Structure formats: C-alpha cells, structure tokens
Amino acid sequence: MPPLMTVTGSTLVIAPAPHHHRPRPRAQGPYARLFSHPGTRAFTAGNLLARLPMGMFGISAVMMIAGQRGSYALAGAVTATGLAATALVAPWTARMVDRYGQARVAVPATLIAVLGSVALVACVRAHAPAWTLFASYAATATTPNIGGMSRARWTHLLRDSPAAHHTAMSFEQAADELCYMLGPVVAAFLCSAAFPEAGTLTAAALLLTGMLLFTAQRRTQPPASPPRAGSSPLRTLMPALALFAPLGVLFGSMEVTSIAHLEARGLGAATGLVLALQAAGSCAAGLLYGTLRPRTLRTCLITLTAALALPWAAAASGSLPLLAAALLLAGMATAPTMVTAMSRVHALAPEGRLNESMTLAVTAILTGIALGAAAAGSLVDHLGPTTPYALPAAAALLALLTCRPVRLSGTSQVP
C-alpha cells in the first residue's frame, strides 16, 4: 500500500504506510517437508501401488490353487517354492538394479514376474500338470524389491539430511506394514467375491502399473554404480544379517501362533481383524517414530523383547481383549526396531550397492519367516496354541543378544 499524503498549511506531510502484520506461515511438519521435494509424491504413489501386491500374491495363489485343485498341500508347496526362488533371485536382481539403474532393470524384471502370474492363472484354469504351477510361480521371483528401490531414492535425495532420512525410512516401514495389512484383505475379498483368479490378476496389474509409474520418475532415480573390486556387501553385512534372521523368525512364528490360537478360540472370520491390530500398531508407530529422535538399535530391541512377552502372558490368561491389546503393543514395538535395523544396513552398505544390501536383509527376514512359521506349526501340534507364543519372545531375545556395535571406517560405530 503506498504512503498517505496530506497538506497542512503550506506543508506536504507524508505519513508512513500502515504496517499490516501478516500471519507467519505455519511450520511444516516432518512429513510435509519430506514430500515437498520435487518428484517424491509421484514416485511414492507408484511405490505404494506396486507394493500392495506384495501382500496379495501369496494368499491369492493359495486360494486360487486350493479352490481349483482342492489341495492346500499343493497350494502351500507352490507358494513355498516361490519363496525359495525369491531368496535366490532377488539379490541378483537387486545387484543388476544397482549396476544398470532402476528403470533399465526393474521394468523387464517386472514383466517377467507378471507373465509368471498370468501363466499360473492359465495353468490352474487349464488343469495343467502340477509342475507347471511350480514353474510359473517361480518366475514371479524376478519381482524387484520395490521397497528397497524406494528407500534407495530417499537415501540419494536426502544424503545431506540425516533427520529427514530418518523420517523417510520411518514412512517406508509404515508403508510396508500398511500394504502387508491391506494386501491379504483385498486378495481374500477379490478371490471370494469375484472369482478365484481375481486376486492374482489384480495384483499383477497393480504391480505393473505401479512399477511403470515409479520408474518413470527419472529425476529422483539414484545413479547407476558399476561394481568395484572387493565391494560385495555380503561379508560386510554379515553381522546385520545375523540380526535380521531372528527378526524373521519372530514374524513367522507370531503369525502362525496367533492364527492357531484365535481359531482355537472359535473366532472364525474375526481372526483377521485381531491379527490386523499388530500391523496397525506397527504402521502407526512407524509414522510417529519418524517425527522423533532415533533411538539406538539396542534400546529398540530391549523394548521389542519386553513387548513380545505380552502376547504370551495374555494368551495364557485366556482373555481375548488382553491378547488384542498385547498384539497392538507388540506391533508398536516392531516398526522402530525395523527402521533402526535398516539404518544399520544403510550405514554398512558398500557404495553403489545399497539396493542389493537391503535385498539381502529382506532375504534374511524371509528365511527367518519360513523357519519361524515351520517351528511354530510344529509347536502348535505338540504343545497346543498357547505355549508357542514363547517363540517370538525368544527370537526377539536372540536378536538382542546378537546386537553388537559395528565399526565403520575403523573409527565410528553404528549402535
């Protein structure tokens, strides 16, 4: 606004313009600042679309194969084969992603995986020999680690901002929990309400669409890194991988034990709702943890070990509300531990091998999940559906005992 002028006698008086106090803009929260970076919203949208099917493929295949072939044993064997193939193929795919770039590798690898899913549907519908089901589902092992690629983008963009990087990793962990919580629900609904193949076909379509959208965001993509001599992450990450295996045992044993215990209580369809509390607690805690100062890995593991004793005690008491609350609290202790453990992987990963390093961690978790699920199933058969709740608590304690400070560059340490 221009200054005001008036005349007093023969004098021209210029009055200063009034000051308008504009309200100060509100300070942005950590997540608003995170997504203010150009391109982050677009690659996150693609990331979430491609990540949701990760929680859909397994249950969709089981429901489709069991529904069409009448054999849960065959369905379980096919999905177990796919898990084993993923453990072998995923690190190799991740290495190619690091070497040649995300878009050049992820798109063709995703196309192979989608063709494997479509072939599985065709073989089930055509009543093809059982070996074709194993071969088709094994082809889906080329699915890129979308969570690892998204974390690699954040690491590239926020390499000079540790606080923002912590927020991004917490968001990614919450996204993992959300997708693994919603994925089975969406898959079960599609297979039941539409037709048995609907879950697999929808998951394949979401995976391809999300991956194309994600890889189209080239300006946020980390640069390709040719391999360097002696840069293999396996030896460097061995102490961290020894930690991720018992964490996988924890997840696998908790799920099987909870399903057995709740079904023994006669919950039926409500079983999934109670189980979702654990994932919901982890998702909420992950988002909250992103706004707080990071804790040491040892502190997170101590909290996790204490929290996982709660479902065991609640199940022994026979109270369903107590068990539901205990699962919620156990889930809330999970996300901070995973965020902090993944931060250790980031710190230890050789330069240019971040995606491969994170995929090795995921492979260790998957191996632990398989072992934990098998061990819990055996304990349920021999000891009933309550005592096996001790297994997740024991796995958390083992993870705590294996947690040691790791030296970086001969001086600094990752707690």
Task: Describe the secondary-structure layout.
Blueprint: E1 4-8, E2 11-15, H1 30-34, H2 40-51, H3 57-69, H4 72-100, H5 102-125, H6 130-139, H7 146-157, H8 162-193, H9 198-215, H10 233-264, H11 271-289, H12 297-317, H13 320-348, H14 354-383, H15 390-402, E3 406-408, E4 412-414
Antiparallel strand pairs: 1-2, 3-4
Description:
The chain is mainly alpha-helical and 415 residues long. The chain contains 15 helices and 4 strands. It has helices at 30-34, 40-51, 57-69, 72-100, 102-125, 130-139, 146-157, 162-193, 198-215, 233-264, 271-289, 297-317, 320-348, 354-383, 390-402; strands at 4-8, 11-15, 406-408, 412-414. It has a two-stranded antiparallel sheet with strand order 1-2. Strands 3-4 form a two-stranded antiparallel sheet. Strand 3 and strand 4 (412-414) form a beta hairpin. Helix 4 runs antiparallel to helix 14 (354-383). The termini are far apart. Residues 408-414 have low confidence and may be disordered.
Task: Output the radius of gyration.
Answer: 25 Å
Distance between the termini: 58 Å
Nearest-integer average pLDDT: 83
Helix tally equals: 15
Q: Please bin the fraction of helical residues.
A: over 70%
User: Which percent range describes the beta-strand content?
Assistant: under 5%
Sequence stretches where pLDDT stays below 50 over 5 or more residues = 408-414
**Could you say which overall geometry the principal axes of the C-alpha atoms support?**
globular
Structural class: mainly alpha
| Pattern of helices and strands | EEHHHHHHHHHHHHHHHEE
The profile of the biggest β sheet is: 2 strands, antiparallel
Q: Can you list the strand order of the major beta sheet?
A: 1-2
User: What is the β-strand count?
Assistant: 4
